[in-house]
């Protein structure tokens, strides 16, 4: 962004409490929409796993794997934002900050420099693709419920990112976004036409 005076500044943020409520409202429809195709493909394996091959120790190991994977995934989610912004928008690691909004227990990644909106959107969507969509595809291909559950959780965990992308849908890709320092969202800098 060459000169801030050439741009109109607009604040575009989402309310994280509303985003969390929205996530809870769509959780079951989303789960069913994703699980029904999985169930249609792997119903025999699911029945076998819960009747013939079920054991308490296997259940505990699978649960532990999911908990560890989710904890690592939460950290990766924020690093994927940062790495995508660093690569796509050519930002320095010094401009990236991490933290948690304790009111909603929401981890965040913040970039302190403006970037083109197309790069901001890409950074917002990448965790959902890498941690949600790809694991879901793997689960459909190999029939592993742990991959399915992980992918589902990280698509659900990207609800705030989807909402941010949605509030930017009418913005021009080559205008600029500056990550908001305290809210979920950004400042949009629209080029003023002369």
Written overview of the protein:
Helices cover 60% and strands 18% of the residues. It has 194 residues and is α+β, with helices and mostly antiparallel strands. The chain has a four-stranded antiparallel β-sheet. Helix 2 packs across helix 4 and helix 3 (117-142) runs antiparallel to helix 4 (145-156). The longest helix has 36 residues, at 16-51.
Question: Low-confidence spans: pLDDT under 50, at least 5 residues?
Answer: none
Shape: elongated
Count of beta strands: 6
Q: Percent of residues in beta strands?
A: 15-25%
Order of helices and strands: EHHEEEHHHEE
Q: State the helix count.
A: 5
CA-CA gap between termini: 17 Å
Key phrases:
elongated, 5 helices, single chain, 18% strand, 4-stranded antiparallel β-sheet, alpha+beta, 194 residues, two-stranded antiparallel ribbon
Summarize the helices and strands and which ones pair or pack.
Elements: E1 7-14, H1 16-51, H2 56-88, E2 96-101, E3 106-111, E4 115-116, H3 117-142, H4 145-156, H5 159-167, E5 176-179, E6 184-191
Antiparallel strand pairs: 1-6, 2-3, 4-5, 5-6
Helix pairs in contact: 2-3, 2-4, 3-4, 3-5
